[in-house]
C-alpha cells in the first residue's frame, strides 16, 4: 500500500505527524536572528518596555502570517510555486520570487554556519587571543580593504562551509520524514538543553545582574516612538521565517487533517520563548564582559556578527569555564543555523521537484550542488564578508519584505483568498479563526510591511548602504533584488512537468473560494456570505484525508463557472450542489478567464 | 537588579513562556486524527511516474475517480 500513487500527480512526501512538523517548523523559525538579533533589538528599543510592542506584533502579525503560510501550503499541498499556482495561475510568480529569495539566503547562510562550527573548535584553544576583533577581521577572514569580488580563498573557512553543505546534502537526500523531520527532532531539544546550560552558566558570572538590568529596565517613553513599534514588527517578521515559502513548503508535508492554527500558536510562542531565553543569556554574558572591562553594558552591547564572533570570544576568554560556554554557544549557533538552512534549501528543492517532476535525490542534487558551488565560490574569500553584508541587507529588506507585502496584498485584495484560507484552517483546526484574523493579515500586516519597506527604501536611496561603493551596492544589492523578481517571472512562464500539471486543482475540499467570490463580485452581488463561516462553507464537512485525495473525491468537483451562463448565481447553492453528477475538472482554483 | 527590571523580566517570561504553555495545552486537547492511509512511504515515485505515463489523458482521470479502484 502506498499513498504516493496518486493518479497522475507528483508524489507527495509527508511528516509522520504533527509533532515532527512542529519540531521542523520551530527548527526553521529558531535561527541566528533569535540568538544574535533579538537581544540587541530589545535592548535598543525600550528594554523591558519592548515586551509590549513585541507581544502585540507577535499576536497581530507574526502568528496570523504564520497561519496564512500554513493555510496556503496545507490547502494547496505543494511547494511555494505550485501552491500559489494552484491558488491562481497568475500567482505562480510569487512562489518563484520566494524561492529565489531562499536561493540568495542559502548561499551566504552556510558560510555563517561554517564560522560557528570553526569557532566551536576555536573555543578549546581560544585561538582569537587577546583581540578577537582583529583576529576575526584580519587573521581569520583576512577581510580585503577593497570592496569588490575576489577569489582569494580562505581555505579553513572554505572547508568548514563545504562540510555544512555536505551534511545538508545528506539530510535532504534522506527525505522529509527521515532526514528533515528526524534531524529536527534531535537537534531542537539538544539546542534548547545546550542553551539552557549556557544561560545557567552566564547567570552565575559576576556582572550578570547588571546585564539583565540593562536589558529589562523599561524605557516607557519608547512606546510612543513609532520606530520602536516598527522594530518590534520587524523582529517578529524576520524571526518567524514567514513570507518566503518555508512555512508553505513545510505545511504541504502535513497530513490533511492537521491542527494548523494550534500548531502555529505553538511555533510562534516557541520561537519567542527561545528569543527571551537568548536575551537573558546574551545580556548576562555582556554584563560580565562590561564588569570585567570596567565599562557600561551599553558600551559592549552589540548584535550580529560583532556579538557572536567578537564579543562572545572575549567573554569566553575571560569567564571561568569559558571553553564550555564557547562550545555551548557556538554549537547552539551552528545547530540553530543549520535547522534553518535545511528549511531554506528545502523550499528550493520542493519547487524544482514539482516543476520538473523529479525524484527527491535528483532534485536535491540539482539544487544543492550548484548552490554549494556558488556559495563556496563567492563567500569563503577575503571579499566574502562585504558581499554577505550587502546581500543580506538587501534580500531581507527588499526581498522578503517586498515579497511578503505583495503576496499579502494579492491574497487579500487581488484574489480575495483570505476567506477561503480561513475556512480551510477552521475546517481542520482546534483554534477557530474569525474576522479578526482576516483584519490582521489583510489590514495590519500590509500597513506595517509597507511602512518598513518605504522606510528602508528612502533611507537606503538617500544615504547609500554602509559607505560601500555604489557599483557594488547597485549590482549585489539593488540589482540582485530586482533580478529575483525578473527571474521569478521568467520561471513562472516555463512549462510544468506533465505529472504536476495534471494536478493543478487543489486537492483540498471545495470551499466557497476566492474564485467564486470574484465571480460574485463580477455579477455585482453583495458578499453577504462572508459573515458566517457555517453558512458559506457547507463543503467543510467533506472528507479531507489522504484517502480522499488519492481517490480524487475532493478534487473533481463542479466548476463554479458552469453556472455563469445559466443565471444561477447563488454561491451557497453552488457549494452545496458541488458533489452532484455534473462533475467537471478545472486546472486551478483561480482559473476564471 | 532594580525592582522594575526584575518585574519586567518576570512579565516577559510569564507572558511568552506562559503563552507557549497555553498553546501546548490547547494542541494537546485536540488529539491527532488517524487516517488509515496516513503512512506515506517514500521512494514510490517511480510507481507514480509509471501511472502518469500510462494514463496521461486527463479525461480518463474523471472516470477513474468516479469508480476508484481499490489500492489497499
From TrEMBL, chain A:
GO terms for cellular component: membrane. InterPro entries: Na/ntran_symport, SNS_sf. It comes from the Bacteria. PROSITE patterns: NA_NEUROTRAN_SYMP_1, NA_NEUROTRAN_SYMP_3. Pfam families: SNF (PF00209). Keywords: Membrane, Symport, Transmembrane, Transmembrane helix, Transport. The chain crosses the membrane at residues 21-39, 51-73, 94-117, 153-173, 185-208, 228-253, 265-290, 327-350, 362-380, 400-421, 433-452, 472-491. GO terms for molecular function: symporter activity. It is a multi-pass membrane protein. SUPFAM superfamilies: SNF-like (SSF161070). The keyword Transmembrane applies. The keyword NADP does not apply. It is found in: Membrane. Residues 562-593 are annotated as: Disordered. Belongs to the sodium:neurotransmitter symporter (SNF) (TC 2.A.22) family. This is Transporter. It comes from Kocuria marina.
UniProtKB/TrEMBL annotation, chain B:
Residues 32-72 are annotated as: Disordered. InterPro entries: MaAIMP_sms. The chain crosses the membrane at residues 6-25. The keyword Lipoprotein does not apply. Keywords: Membrane, Transmembrane, Transmembrane helix. It comes from the Bacteria. It holds the Pfam family MaAIMP_sms. Residues 43-54 have a biased composition (Basic and acidic residues). This is Methionine/alanine importer small subunit.
Amino acid at each position: 500500500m502506498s499513498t504516493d500513487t496518486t493518479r497522475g500527480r507528483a508524489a507527495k512526501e509527508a511528516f509522520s505527524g504533527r509533532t515532527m512538523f512542529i519540531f521542523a517548523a520551530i527548527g526553521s523559525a529558531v535561527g541566528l536572528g533569535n540568538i544574535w538579533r533579538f537581544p540587541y533589538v530589545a535592548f535598543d528599543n525600550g528594554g523591558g518596555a519592548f515586551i509590549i510592542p513585541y507581544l502585540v506584533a507577535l499576536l497581530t502579525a507574526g502568528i496570523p502570517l504564520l497561519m496564512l503560510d500554513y493555510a496556503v501550503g496545507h490547502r494547496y499541498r505543494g511547494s511555494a510555486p505550485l501552491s500559489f499556482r494552484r491558488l491562481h495561475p497568475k500567482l505562480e510568480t510569487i512562489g518563484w520570487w520566494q524561492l529565489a529569495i531562499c536561493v540568495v539566503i542559502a548561499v551566504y547562510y552556510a558560510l555563517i554556519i561554517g564560522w560557528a562550527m570553526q569557532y566551536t573548535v576555536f573555543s578549546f584553544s581560544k585561538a582569537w587571543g587577546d583581540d578577537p576583533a582583529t583576529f576575526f577581521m584580519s587573521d581569520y577572514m583576512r577581510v580585503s580593504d577593497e570592496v569588490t569580488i575576489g577569489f582569494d580563498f580562505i581555505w579553513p573557512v572554505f572547508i568548514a562551509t563545504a562540510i555544512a553543505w555536505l551534511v545538508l546534502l545528506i539530510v535532504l537526500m534522506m527525505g522529509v520524514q527521515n532526514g528533515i523531520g528526524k534531524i529536527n527532532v534531535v537537534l531542537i531539544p539538544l539546542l534548547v538543553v545546550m542553551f539552557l546550560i549556557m544561560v545557567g552558566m552566564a547567570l552565575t558570572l559576576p556582572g550578570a545582574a547588571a546585564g539583565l538590568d540593562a536589558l529589562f529596565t523599561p524605557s516607557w517613553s519608547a512606546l510612543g516612538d513609532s520606530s520602536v513599534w516598527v522594530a518590534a514588527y520587524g523582529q517578529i517578521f524576520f524571526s518567524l521565517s514567514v513570507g518566503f515559502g518555508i512555512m508553505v513548503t513545510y505545511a504541504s508535508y502535513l497530513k490533511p487533517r492537521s491542527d494548523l492554527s494550534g500548531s502555529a500558536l505553538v511555533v510562534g510562542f516557541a520561537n519567542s520563548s527561545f528569543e527571551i531565553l537568548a536575551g537573558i543569556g546574551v545580556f548576562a554574558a555582556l554584563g560580565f564582559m562590561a564588569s570585567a572591562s570596567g565599562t557600561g553594558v551599553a558600551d559592549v552591547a552589540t548584535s550580529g556578527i560583532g556579538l557572536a564572533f567578537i564579543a562572545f570570544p572575549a567573554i569566553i576568554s575571560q569567564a571561568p569555564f569559558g571553553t564550555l560556554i564557547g562550545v555551548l554557544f557556538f554549537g547552539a549557533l551552528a545547530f540553530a543555523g543549520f535547522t534553518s538552512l535545511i528549511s531554506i534549501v528545502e523550499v528550493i528543492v520542493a519547487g524544482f521537484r514539482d516543476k520538473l517532476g523529479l525524484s527527491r535525490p535528483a532534485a536535491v542534487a540539482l539544487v544543492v550542488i550548484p548552490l554549494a558551488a556558488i556559495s563556496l565560490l563567492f563567500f569563503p574569500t577575503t571579499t566574502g564578508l562585504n558581499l554577505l553584508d550587502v546581500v543580506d541587507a538587501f534580500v531581507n529588506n527588499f526581498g522578503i519584505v517586498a515579497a511578503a507585502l505583495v503576496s499579502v496584498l494579492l491574497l487579500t485584495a487581488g484574489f480575495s483568498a483570505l476567506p477561503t484560507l480561513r475556512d480551510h484552517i477552521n475546517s481542520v483546526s482546534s483554534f477557530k479563526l474569525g474576522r479578526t484574523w482576516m483584519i490582521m493579515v489583510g489590514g495590519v500586516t500590509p500597513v506595517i510591511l509597507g511602512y518598513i519597506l518605504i522606510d528602508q527604501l528612502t533611507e537606503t536611496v538617500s544615504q547609500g548602504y554602509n559607505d560601500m561603493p555604489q557599483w557594488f551596492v547597485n549590482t549585489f544589492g539593488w540589482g540582485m533584488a530586482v533580478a529575483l523578481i525578473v527571474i521569478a517571472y521568467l520561471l513562472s512562464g516555463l512549462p510544468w512537468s506533465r505529472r504536476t500539471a495534471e494536478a493543478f486543482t487543489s486537492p483540498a475540499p471545495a470551499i466557497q473560494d476566492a474564485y467564486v467570490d470574484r465571480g460574485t463580485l463580477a455579477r455585482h452581488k453583495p458578499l453577504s456570505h462572508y459573515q458566517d463561516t457555517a453558512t458559506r462553507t457547507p463543503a467543510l464537512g467533506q472528507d479531507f484525508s489522504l484517502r480522499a485525495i488519492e481517490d480524487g473525491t475532493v478534487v473533481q468537483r463542479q466548476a463554479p463557472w458552469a453556472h455563469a451562463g445559466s443565471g444561477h448565481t447563488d454561491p451557497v447553492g453552488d457549494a452545496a450542489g458541488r458533489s452532484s453528477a455534473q462533475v467537471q475538472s478545472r486546472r486551478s482554483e483561480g482559473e476564471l478567464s | 537588579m532594580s525592582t522594575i527590571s526584575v518585574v519586567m523580566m518576570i512579565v516577559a517570561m510569564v507572558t511568552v513562556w506562559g503563552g507557549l504553555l497555553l498553546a501546548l495545552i490547547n494542541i494537546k486537547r485536540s488529539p491527532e486524527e488517524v487516517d488509515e492511509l496516513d503512512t506515506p512511504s517514500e521512494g514510490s515515485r517511480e510507481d507514480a511516474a509509471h501511472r502518469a505515463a500510462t494514463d496521461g489523458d486527463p479525461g480518463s482521470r474523471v472516470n477513474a475517480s468516479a469508480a476508484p479502484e481499490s489500492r489497499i
